[in-house]
Amino acid sequence: MSEPLILAIDTSCDDTSTAVTAGTKVLSNVIASQTQLHAPYGGVFPTVAKQAHKENINQTIKIALKRAKVTWDKISAIAVTQGPGLAPSLEVGIAKSKELATKHKLPLIAVNHIEAHALSPLANSGVDHQFPALAIVVSGGHTDFIKITQIGEYERLGFSIDDAAGEALDKVGRMLNLGYPAGPIIEQFAKKGDSKKHSVPLPMTGREDFNMSFSGLKTWARNKLEQIETQNTLNKQDTYDFAASFQYGVFRHICYKLNKLLKQHQISEVWLGGGVAANIEIRRMIRETLKSHNIKLFTPYSKRLCMDNAAMIGVVAGFKFEQQQFVKNIKELERRPRWEINT
Ligand code: KG4
Ligand code: ZN
């Protein structure tokens, strides 16, 4: 029997996305990006995001159904991101999902956005995965190590106690006038730079836990830039070197804690998700770390599956559908802006 078709919606932050999925198979994944709208603010402006979600959502739904070549009568459930995310943004997707579930008399599935990033490598993977797996979610809002005993059973083993890794890259990119979001630009600049030019400190080495901290790295960057600029203004090559060194410092910190974690926990596979997972260098450094533990890395099949998207919400919903985990009272579903994965 074929898997039930799910129409999934994600409006957690600044991208409006709708997808159609069947189990872990992605039939369509439409993303209306708001990057251009928020760039002048150097970050996501919540009221602007909410308004843009409202303007874009109907169109993304229409296109997602069209690209998947399905009509409403073939859809078995609606899925929506309940949290975490920006409250005004979440509200738009949740309101639309309630409207659609009621109108088409379909069950509604509420999904955690971090669980979706964690399971995003399963989309279209077709592999028989081994447990326990460790998901590393590295995005603009999270840097988490999540142990997955089985789908639906999670334990967060480590997390950033302050800024997320993507946030640190964005903030330092702003200091370098690279625009927003700076993560992908830092990746390009770093390719032309010397990652050993500046030695970025390695934080939290004296602690036994697997938590991380990126705000000290950001302060280090600000001080270092001030120091360099008192001598001369940064030329192109200096900026490349700085980007390469800082990016290396951020990823080295994650890999250091990952290595420590793998020495103490038996893990069969590592799954990498979140916006920063699109970065080729973090993938290379994590693979290098996993080599000595003989563990394989799984990443999402495309960059679109790394960034915020509804296909990953649909993948989680596919598993929840199997367990019949539907929202009991659709009218009462509320957004959960600070919802952590194992709570
Ligand atoms: O998962 P995501 O799209 O949204 C959140 O849930 O936060 O992640 C966005 C973050 C931003 O900080 C962005 O700079 C970063 O992912 N990012 C990257 C790359 N592409 C996106 N960071 C480094 N290298 C990239 N190629
Ligand atoms: Zn995200």
Describe this protein's structure.
By secondary structure, the chain is an alpha/beta fold. It folds into two domains: 5-119 and 305-332, 2-Layer Sandwich (Nucleotidyltransferase, domain 5), CATH 3.30.420; 128-300, ATPase, nucleotide binding domain (Nucleotidyltransferase, domain 5, 2-Layer Sandwich), CATH 3.30.420.40. The chain has eleven helices and ten strands. The protein has helices spanning 35-38, 46-68, 87-103, 113-119, 165-175, 183-191, 215-231, 236-264, 280-291, 303-306, 311-322, and strands at residues 5-10, 15-22, 25-33, 75-83, 108-112, 133-138, 143-150, 153-159, 269-273, 296-298. The strands form two sheets. It has a five-stranded mixed β-sheet, with helices on both faces. Strand 9 (269-273), helix 9 and strand 10 (296-298) form a beta-alpha-beta unit. Helix 6 (183-191) crosses helix 8 (236-264). The protein is globular, with a radius of gyration of 20 Å. The chain starts with a strand and ends in a 21-residue tail after the last helix. The model has no long low-confidence stretch (mean pLDDT 96). The structure holds 5'-O-[(R)-(carboxyoxy)(hydroxy)phosphoryl]adenosine and zinc ion. 5'-O-[(R)-(carboxyoxy)(hydroxy)phosphoryl]adenosine is lined by residues 13, 139-141, 166-167, 169-170, 181-184, 187, 274-276, 278-279, 307-308.
